[in-house]
Amino acid sequence: MAMASAELLQAEADLMRHSLGYLKSMALHSAVKLGIADAIHRCGGSASLPDLLATLPLPPSKQPYLARLMNVLATEGIFVAEDAAVADGDGAACVYHLNTMSRLLVSDTGINGSAWPQSSCILMATTPQMVGSALQLGKWFQSDGEATPFVMANGRSPYVVAAQDAEFNSVFNEAMAADSRYLADLVVRECSDVFKGITSLVDVAGGTGTMARAITKAFPHVKCSVLDLPHVIEGSSAQDNVEFIAGDMMVFIPSADRILLKYVLHNWNDADCVKILTRCREAITHGTKEGKVIIIDVVVGSPSQDILEAQLLMDMQMMSLFMAKERYEQDWNKIFKEAGFINYKIYPILGVRSVIELYI
Known about the structure:
18 helices; three-stranded antiparallel β-sheet; alpha/beta; seven-stranded mixed β-sheet; 10 strands; globular
């Protein structure tokens, strides 16, 4: 059956858009490296191209190309363009404004009311190591080996690369801290009922305690403990009703009213998740009353196409990094049952993430 020319041409345009989609990521990476959102913020939230050229650290030879970068960023909705820069090509008459998305790239915490800038997360996702692992996906699907795409590209796992490459480790740690600060404020705001009526909580693999400190600040009656590997919590000291415990979550988790697993389980296969959840179940069954496990992670599926797409791309990333995965509800249900849990509630209230209450 012959297809109409318009249909063929649209299909060609769609294929071209997808095949060149990596340039969207690189354009966003460039915006972060140049500090474009900060520059617009310093101009009062709106800036013309001449304003940006006067502010950004661009050598004269690169200044003529800024308009083309801004065209892509505005078309993708990173910034709002007043007057069509695409129409005149050079963008001189265009004024760019911050929107909700680009406000998350501003390093001045006052604009967001909290320490929310996500620029370091963008830089982490677009490191040569991460992009290189994605480029290995086609080869990985054709191979019968056990190496992940990340290992195929970099020769080592992400954790080993972080331990041996100071620059990658710095970007990784900054991204994890930024995500924890951002998520901590939202969890306290949107999920306060989860923390009512409890006196103790263990944040498993809680890093340097960003989430735990946010919880104790909002709920001073809750004593929080952070459990993580010795090298992770090295240098962290007890403060603000938060203590640090060196240990392996696969072996033992201290008892508490609530056990928190924030963005932990998507790094692990099902068998390891069952092992971790079994340790959690043991930790909440001490004492006269049974506690709960609080999981903050992705539950794939959303009426929002944008959120669903983000979840599926995150799933590909987990596959590339660890051969792990983001899970659908039936996947979560399976590992919950295998770990001895019967009941759970899912609250899809954190965008791409959900809060899951898990109890016996």
